[in-house]
Hints:
It comes from Sphaerisporangium rufum. By secondary structure, the protein is of the alpha+beta class.
Amino acid sequence: MDEFEAVRTLRRDLPEITPAARDAARHAFMNAAQAPGSRPRPKLRWRPALAAMLAVLAGTGVVMTRGQPETTPVAGVVELGERAARAAEDTPVPEARAGQWLYIKQRQAAISDPEGVGVDPGRFEDWEQWASVDGQRTAWYTDGRLLEQGTFPGLSADRLDAEPVTPQSLLQRISAALPDLQVTSGPPPSKDELRFKAIYQLMGEQQLPARVRAALFRALPMIPGVTVTQNAADAAGRHGVAFSHSSRDLRYDLILSPDDYRFLGTYGVTTADRTWDLGQEGKRLVKAGTPLTWTAQLETRLVDHAGDRP
């Protein structure tokens, strides 16, 4: 079972996806982790566009940088985690009510080849989605129709905010929520990869209490393979500092503002040649240095219903 077949298995109980949504799905593939295999847990489905589009399949052998940000570089990942955690503790977060959704507006690099894999760092499009505050659903418009699907890792802010709220306890909860993966196009993602991806997802798509966000920042340096990338740029051209995770032929960047450490966006590229199995589209050789995803979070706001705009 390859990544796309695994996703089709997950979508058996969902409406047939439209061509436009399928294009969005291919775009989200640049953001996706390896898909769950034949034994997914019912509530842990991937993000919308890939049948539940997980915002990560970012690699990083190449880092998009332009100029130097006016900030003091962090010496290492532990220092970055602590700086970001302290900033999170000092930043008030609006409290979400049960049933609300988080509206998210994001800029993405456009797909470079509709039949292949990769994004064009010279073309951009804006994307809107809504994430339920219980962490279980995500929604987006395609052809004027609002679609909803499950999401990853399926953890709500309330569940993460249950005592004890420590870096260790949050890593344990995230690990327990991860599905078993079965893939054929290479070794499955490691637990460390998936924990990084889950935090990456939660940071970008959940209205997390300040102490939860702080604990997650302190948890990132505890994941083996996480390092710092200085002067990474998001898809809106904003410069920041990134937590990065490298494994196999990919690297993932979680980009933060260098002054207040808020979430800015993501970037990823392949670090080695790899053949991807795209299902009916066949196999594609993806060369090292191919940008897979480049995003910028432009706006987030709590709303009462999926589809509502601020």
